[in-house]
Amino acid sequence: MRIGVFCSGGDAPGMNACVRSVVRGATSAGHEVVGINRGYQGLVDENLFLDSLGEAKMSARSVSNIIQRGGTILRSARCQAFQTEAGMQKAVETLEKFKIDGLIAIGGNGTFRGLNELVERWDGRVIGVPGTIDNDLVGTDYTIGFSTAVQTAVDAIDKLRDTAESHERLFLVEVMGRHSGYLALYTALAAGAEVACIPETPTDIPGMVDHLHSLQQTGKKSIIVVVAEGDELGGALILQDKLQKAKCSFALRTVILGHVQRGGSPTPDDRILATRLGDFAVRSISEGATAMMAGEINHECVLSPIKDSFSKRKELPKEMIDLLDRMSK
Ligand SMILES: Nc1ncnc2c1ncn2[C@@H]1O[C@H](COP(=O)(O)OP(=O)(O)O)[C@@H](O)[C@H]1O
Ligand SMILES: O=P(O)(O)OC[C@H]1O[C@](O)(COP(=O)(O)O)[C@@H](O)[C@@H]1O
């Protein structure tokens, strides 16, 4: 086969490890790999990855020394042109022109919506690999990049806790996650935060103020509140304002971690997940699978319909929400 591979949407640490795995898994099975730069934009613009000889082909050597690097050597993009009929037709023409017969897309739910449109217009096979720090995709326990983003946020909070404790302050720490509280909840659990404000549960300001006050009464010197950017009341700055108005007894500071969570060297967990799923995607596509997402559930590689990844909501484990409650006494 000639397999195309690209990264799309918000980048995630481990995307490089996944590209490496697709290339090495495919070439060792005798397939050719064509890298597409900048996700769907590269298909619209015919922007292919060229090797040192100027050929549109990814060899095993073209992915040397990238497993440890954040970002993606193929670049990523959010592509508006692909959301038009003309853009999709142009993408199909590019795939046909370069005789690509299988496409592996590493990205999030928007990327998979795009793949779902592509299968309606193109005869080749498509497989999605979940690459997003948000961990918001049905069909896999974890997405590539989530573990690293949690690690980055926890490292930052460990530092903030030192200064929070010295000054007896409360820090609101905003993490990413437009529609999902996974990143916020797992960060809060790992960092020993007292509260997580997430889109999945109502944020009750008077209740929180009472809880924080009672913690202060029992001797708590510092508080960390992890806020998902998508919390229904708003981000950390809005919550700071609301807590102040509700007469929170702690002095307040806000830190927005932002895109720092999307960078950095991937954790071993992300590298291994990326390596497993990239190789599994290659084996699946060569065995005839299409319109599926490659995921890992209970440590097993599994395929699930690509439609599920964006049409079903991935629930946060209630057990983890309750665990944080019990730990924040
Ligand atoms: N409904 C759609 N139809 C076609 N393409 C889409 C659709 N939704 C998203 N895409 C494509 O997928 C790209 C990545 O989606 P986006 O939501 O930005 O990131 P992610 O894949 O990380 O969720 C978009 O920029 C667009 O090109
Ligand atoms: O990079 P941008 O365009 O500012 O987007 C930020 C968004 O991308 C993310 O980092 C990742 O989301 P996706 O993987 O779904 O693109 C979100 O957590 C965040 O809300």
Describe the fold and architecture:
The chain is α/β, with parallel strands linked by helices and 329 residues long. The chain has 2 domains: 2-145 and 266-311, 3-Layer(aba) Sandwich (Rossmann fold), CATH 3.40.50.450; 147-263, Rossmann fold (3-Layer(aba) Sandwich), CATH 3.40.50. It is built from 11 helices and 10 strands. The protein has helices at 15-28, 39-45, 85-97, 109-121, 146-167, 182-191, 205-217, 236-245, 268-286, 306-311, 318-327, and strands spanning 2-7, 32-35, 102-107, 125-130, 169-175, 195-197, 223-228, 251-256, 292-297, 300-305. α5 crosses α6. Adenosine-5'-diphosphate binds at residues 8-10, 40, 78-79, 82-83, 107-111, 113-114, 117, 132.
User: Helicity, in percent?
Assistant: 40-55%
Which compounds are bound in this model? adenosine-5'-diphosphate, 1,6-di-O-phosphono-beta-D-fructofuranose
Number of domains: 2
Number of strands: 10
CATH architectural name of the largest domain: 3-Layer(aba) Sandwich
In sequence order, what are the helices and strands, one letter per element?
EHEHHEHEHEHEHEHEHEEHH
Strand order of the largest sheet: 2-1-3-4-9-10
The gyration radius over C-alpha positions equals: 22 Å
CATH hierarchy class name of the largest domain: Alpha Beta
**Which structural class do you get from the secondary structure elements?**
alpha/beta
Oligomer: single chain
The coarse silhouette is elongated
Q: Spans with pLDDT under 50 lasting ≥5 residues?
A: none
